[in-house]
Amino acid sequence: MNEMNFELAKKLRHELHKHPELSNHEVWTKKHLLEFLKRYTKLEIVDNENWFYAIYRAGKDKPNIAFRADIDALPFQENDSIPYASKVPGIAHKCGHDGHAAGLCALAMEVDQNGADKNVFFLFQHAEETGDGAAQCKSFISLNNIEEIFAIHSMSGLEYNSINVIDGTIQCASKGMIIHFEGSPTHASQPELGKNPAFAIAQIVVSIPNVISCAKNKGMVLCTVVQIDVGERAFGMSASRGNLLLTIRALYEDEMEALQKSIEELAKSEADKYGLKVTFSYQDYFPETKNHIESNNKIRMVCRNKGIQINELKEAIRPSEDFGHYTKLTKGSMCFIGNGYDYPHIHTSDFDYRDELIKTTVELFKGLIDL
């Protein structure tokens, strides 16, 4: 990688880190990235409302390959231990998306300067953390006839600067599930006259271990209690409404859907038992991120050719990623680049993207373009 391009990308990463923005609010971030690409490349820009992409065109008869970077940050308070610490109270880049975006800009500069024998698309996607982004951007695949798409994510607990892959599912499917019960209020001294949802919610919670039993599933299935909110803070009243918030998660998306159905049936049964109304709502939906073997094999080949350490993951990781929306529509792969075994984990206060990973990211992606 050109050293000047690396220095520009590193400076860009630090600027992005100073100005983090939450999912669906990436106004400054998007504007700054657009300005950077317009200043340092001659690439074509396609600007959408919340997201955009840049294009290097090699010719109509050339293959179309895409690379995606996420650009949103997390609701996190960062301390001032680094010189480019977040200037936005309560928001910080603690998942490395600043590094992903800067790395994709670095790749754009390299391709713009040196050319390529493929049409290369650089997708800058919003709202990965909530699962909204890829769902809104997936039309990008068909509109541009994308034949293959790649992405990379930094991950702690893996060998520093190594590339890590697994065939098939690499990240689990998940969604947030809200179960709302509606009963009827009464004085706390006469609970038998009302309809209290606390007992129905309690029955669902204690039933979770049976619902997610390994004997019933091919892969890992999880149901995590996120919040229980029942009644009012008033000792003279018996609760009449309540919400149970769950995160349901599975290695395979079809088993997550089966888990959802089982919990819904259980909730309906408990509602009938206690004379309650029950409704369901969902948010933060993530499909399973499933890698194509052909795309993974290209990553393996590039790593061998360039002397980049390549490791095979033994199993998928539990956290979800919305990149799976793209690999449902075309070939592609998400791989991890190692932060180091003892490096602070993503989504923790001490995490900061390691600048040197930009170089490896760019070399890997350039190799994929050259195949």
UniProtKB/TrEMBL annotation:
All copies of domain Peptidase M20 dimerisation, residue ranges: 174-274
Domain of life of the source: Bacteria
InterPro entries: Amidohydrolase, Bact_exopeptidase_dim_dom, Peptidase_M20, Peptidase_M20_dimer
Transmembrane segments: none
Record gene name: celE
Pfam families the UniProt entry points to: M20_dimer, Peptidase_M20
SUPFAM superfamilies: Bacterial exopeptidase dimerisation domain (SSF55031), Zn-dependent exopeptidases (SSF53187)
Protein name as annotated: Peptidase M20
Organism name: Clostridium omnivorum
